[in-house]
Structure formats: C-alpha cells, structure tokens
C-alpha cells in the first residue's frame, strides 16, 4: 500500500489504527501496534492520572514509532491527563464523547495532532469547524460507547466523506483486510479497529473476556443504556438484568443505580463475565483467534492487498 493522507498525517506505515479502549489498551498493546506499522492508542479513560503517565513512559520506551492517547472528554480529571500529554510530548490525541472545541487548539499549539471520534455528519462538521486534523466516523456496529443515531458504518462513512474536507478514519465493524478495503471504497482514508485488538495477545483484557469474544456469535451483542451513555456490550447476565429493569419503565436514576461504578473494570479487566460490563462490537462474531498485534496487522495488510488486486477480476463483478 502506498502512502495516503492518514499515513502521512501520523507518519506511520499502514492506515490501521487501534482504538483506545478502557481496560484493554495500555502501553503493551499501543506500542505493539505502533511497532507493527499501525497507530497504537493508549485508552486513558480507565487510568488515574499517574497510571496514564506510567503508560506513556513505558510506551515511549517500548517503541520509537508514533503512538496516541485516547481521551474521553467526560473523564473526571481531564485537565491532569491533558497536562501529562503535553508535558510528555505525546504526538497524537484522539478525543471522544464530548465537545472538541474545549482542548483542540491547546493541544495543537503544542504540536499535537488531534483527531475526534463522531457518530453523525452533524458532529463531523462540528469537529471539522473546531480545527481537528482528522475525524473518526464510528458506526453502530462498534463496541463500547456508541452514537444515539444508530447509523451503521456502511451509511455513515460515505455521508461523512462527502461532508468534510479533512482525512477520514472509519470505525465500527472493521476487523480484517476485506472490511478495511470496503470502508476505504466508501470514502475512508484509514480504519480504526477496537474489537479485533481486544482479542490480541498484548491487550490487557482479562483472559475470560478474550475467550468470550472468541465464542461470540452474530446477535450476541446489543446497544443499551441510551438514557445514560449508549453502549454496545455482550448480552450476559448483567445485560439481562438491565432488560428486566427496562420492563418496569425505570427512571434514569434507577438505571444509574443498576449500573453502579466500575462494571467495565469488573467485566473486561477482572473477568467477571456475569456481573461485569463486557463492551465489544458486532464483528466479534468473526473473531476466532487471539494473535499478536504484529500478526493481526500483517494479516490485515496481506488480505487488503490481495483482495484489492483480485477485485476487478472477480466473477461477481463481470
Ligand atoms: P465508572 O464510573 O463505572 O468507573 C470509573 C472507573 O474508572 C473505575 O473503575 C476507576 O478505577 C477508573 N478511573 C480511572 N481514573 C479515574 C478517576 N480519575 N476517577 C474515578 N475513576 C477513575 O466508569 P466506566 O468504567 O464506565 O468509565 C470510565 C471512563 O471511561 C469514563 O471517562 C468513560 O467516559 C470512559 N469510557 C469510554 C468508553 C469508550 O467506548 N471510549 C466506554 C466506556 C467508558 P478503580 O476501579 O480502580 O477506582
């Protein structure tokens, strides 16, 4: 694959970005993806400020390639995260779940590239007007935090591509070279993958959670908690309990009480598959193996290049 807008922007070899995922993407995963030629991202949403500093330090020691930090803009101690990112000269920041107007300029003034994650054309245009360097358009298939609009990647990517004039990264349902090529045909310049990199050797997800991802079948995830923050998760015991609660027409407070605190950590990091929140995308149904980040990136690029070369001669297009 030759250079494109995304590889040039981030100074990386392949336009493959590993999503910043709470409890799953620390420095081991981020540095392994960056060393493999993609862009690794440290997910700072689950890290106390000192933990993030340690992760940035370890990531810098483990790779001399560019890497990024994902900052969910809802994070309670966001000022401390931003201060560490600037002081420790992290080259790229992906912001999500909030207003990109708040931090973009300050980060860019410190030579940091800023990318914002959106789930609609409206927010893509807003992020572009705030001056971000690129946009991630994440469809309804994605795991974890999700858009309220329920727009699929197939529909979102072409609409956002038409609307904006800055580089576009597609996310949601992309796990291999075929789906990467498909979204690039739809107008993306690169892809972001979360679910594929949860089932990765260097991911810090608990082994129980990784094994559950391998077993997941089509229809095993669902979007819920729209009244709080929409989130896609595995339909485990905790999810069923939420379903029961929904039958009683609960208030937002009752839903918040049911969710409690630390459910994501309990499920994804501590491996409690019944009571924990297991955030994963729809494409988990297609994942059957845990590989290293290097193997994943190489397999994706091999398949991407092969399918691209075969596509014009495939019978179904003649
Ligand atoms: P909860 O309120 O349920 O729990 C907070 C968790 O975050 C705890 O497990 C806590 O760790 C950890 N944590 C890290 N730093 C802090 C801090 N400064 N103050 C309080 N707790 C902290 O939240 P969630 O686990 O659901 O989400 C945590 C963050 O991740 C939020 O900012 C949220 O926006 C983001 N998030 C992003 C998602 C995405 O898809 N990008 C998906 C879900 C959440 P400990 O248990 O060790 O105290």
Percentage of residues in strands? 5-15%
The amount of helix comes to 40-55%
For this structure, what is the CATH class of the largest domain? Alpha Beta
Largest sheet: 8 strands, parallel
Tally the structural domains. 2
SSE ordering:
HEHEHEHEHEHEEHEHEHHEEHHHH
Query: What small molecules are bound in this structure?
Result: NADPH dihydro-nicotinamide-adenine-dinucleotide phosphate
CATH superfamily of the largest domain: Aldolase class I
> If you average the pLDDT, what whole number results?
96
**CATH fold description of the largest domain:** TIM Barrel
Rounded radius of gyration (Å): 19 Å
Gap between N and C termini, in Å? 25 Å
What is the strand arrangement across the widest sheet?
1-9-8-6-5-4-3-2
> What characteristic shape results from the CA principal axes?
globular
How many helical elements? Answer: 14
- β-strand number: 11
**Per CATH, which architecture of the largest domain?**
Alpha-Beta Barrel
Description:
With 318 residues, the protein is α/β, with parallel strands linked by helices. The chain has two domains: 10-204 and 291-303, TIM Barrel (Alpha-Beta Barrel); 207-283, no CATH class. The chain has 14 helices and eleven strands. An eight-stranded parallel sheet has the order 1-9-8-6-5-4-3-2. α3 (49-62) packs parallel to α4 and α8 (177-185) crosses α14 (293-310). The longest helix has 18 residues, at 293-310. The radius of gyration is 19 Å and the shape is globular. The two termini are 25 Å apart. 49% of the residues are buried. The model has no long low-confidence stretch (mean pLDDT 96). Bound molecules: NADPH dihydro-nicotinamide-adenine-dinucleotide phosphate. NADPH dihydro-nicotinamide-adenine-dinucleotide phosphate (NDP) binds at residues 22, 45-48, 72, 74-77, 96-97, 144-145, 261-265, 279.
């Amino acid at each position: 694959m030759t250079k494109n807008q995304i590889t040039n922007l981030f100074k990386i070899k392949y336009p493959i970005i590993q999503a910043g995922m709470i409890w799953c993407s620390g420095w081991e995963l981020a540095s392994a993806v960056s060393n493999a030629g993609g862009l690794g991202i440290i997910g700072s949403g689950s890290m106390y400020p000192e933990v993030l500093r340690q992760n940035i330090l370890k990531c810098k020691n483990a790779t001399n390639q560019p890497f990024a930090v994902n900052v969910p803009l809802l994070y309670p101690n966001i000022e401390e995260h931003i201060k560490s990112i600037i002081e420790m000269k992290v080259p790229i920041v992906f912001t999500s779940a909030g207003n990109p107007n708040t931090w973009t300029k300050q980060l860019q003034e410190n030579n940091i590239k800023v990318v914002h994650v959106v789930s609609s054309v409206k927010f893509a245009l807003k992020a572009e007007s705030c001056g971000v360097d690129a946009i991630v358009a994440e469809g309804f298939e994605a795991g974890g935090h999700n858009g309220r609009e329920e727009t699929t990647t197939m529909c979102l990517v072409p609409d956002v591509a038409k609307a904006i004039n800055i580089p576009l990264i597609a996310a949601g349902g992309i796990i291999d070279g075929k789906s990467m090529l498909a979204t690039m045909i739809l107008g993306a310049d690169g892809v972001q993958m979360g679910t594929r990199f949860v089932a990765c050797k260097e991911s810090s997800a608990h082994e129980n959670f990784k094994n559950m991802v391998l077993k997941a079948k089509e229809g095993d995830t669902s979007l819920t908690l729209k009244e709080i923050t929409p989130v896609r998760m595995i339909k485990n015991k905790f999810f069923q309990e939420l379903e029961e609660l929904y039958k009683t027409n609960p208030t937002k407070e009752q839903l918040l009480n049911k969710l409690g605190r630390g459910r994501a950590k309990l499920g994804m990091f501590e491996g409690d598959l019944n009571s924990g929140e297991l955030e994963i995308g729809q494409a988990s149904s297609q994942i059957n193996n845990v590989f290293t980040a290097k193997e994943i990136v190489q397999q994706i690029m091999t398949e991407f290049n092969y399918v691209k070369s075969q596509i014009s001669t495939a019978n179904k297009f003649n």
